[in-house]
Amino acid sequence: MEGQRRRGRGSGGQKLDIESAVQQLVEAEHNRLAAEAELERIKASSEQPEPPEEFAQVDELVEHHRRVLEYEDNVNRQKQAIDTAETSYNQAAELLRDVLPENVPLTYDYPGRREDMVGKRYVVIKREGKVIVPAIEKSPRARKTKRRS
User: Fold this and answer.
1) Could you report the per-residue pLDDT of 100-110, keeping only the tens digit for each?
2) By CB distance 3.0 to 4.6 Å, which of 17, 83, 88, 146 could disulfide with 28?
3) Are 26 and 110 in contact (CB under 8 A)?
4) Is residue 84 a contact partner of residue 31, using CB atoms and an 8 Å limit?
5) Helix-strand-coil percent breakdown of the chain, rounded to 5?
6) How far is CA 61 from the centre of its chain?
């Protein structure tokens, strides 16, 4: 690592690097949890279509195959979303591992533009060298929004 600037150290872009990493980490965790919940919902609401004992017409086979492909596509899309979120999480955690002290929680009120995350508070902590998000709660600083009638 000699010759490379350690991100998060020194001046200049330090704050932006760390802030970006924390935001990336919590967005990735949010995405992973959402994708896992959607995958569970898909699996709970519908099983992979089983073939009948017999296809009386070609149209029945075509329809069965379409349903199988649709189910597999939905499942694979969520698995890919989970993998993407985990990759993004690991990238951010790598930077934060260098700057976050062991067992000192960071409380982070999400300031980003994603409406589904606004008003949430994340706790980020490094335990045994691993950066984790053990808690997500409503932020006391959450913006009050007017209810539409």
Assistant:
1) 999 999 999 99
2) 88
3) yes
4) yes
5) 50, 15, 35
6) 37
